[in-house]
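Hello,

I think I submitted the guanosine-5'-monophosphate job twice by accident. Can you confirm which output corresponds to this input? Input:
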Amino acid sequence: MSDTIFGKITRGEIPTEFLYEDDQCVVIRDINPQAPTHVLIIPRKPIPRLVDAAPEDQVLLGHLLVVAGNVAEKLGVGDAFRLIINNGEGGGQTVFHLHLHILAGRDMTEGQLATGLN
Ligand code: 5GP
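Support: Only one job matched these inputs. Its output is below.
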């Protein structure tokens, strides 16, 4: 499996501030934010795309959702955020190491499908 920038970040090979980390995932700020709050929840396990997740990843995927909610609360946006997973090039994915985006701090009600991501 090919490595990505997120593999290097989760392994600590590229110095990056972790807003949160545990044994399964890290949370970082997006380098090119599409909203005032834009953070990424990245599992340490390098699953390339959501469709590549296996039944054994079920607990991990649930954990990522719980972390997303907790981090949103911690960042003060728990009442108004959008959680996004881009899957595949056609879905706007550019880094092939599964990650969740939290976007918040701008109007999320205008155009329900408009994410501002790619
Ligand atoms: P995707 O398009 O794959 O869903 O999202 C990849 C995201 O990763 C993009 O929003 C991009 O700005 C962000 N990104 C790419 N490289 C880096 C990096 O080296 N550091 C950080 N913090 N974010 C990155």
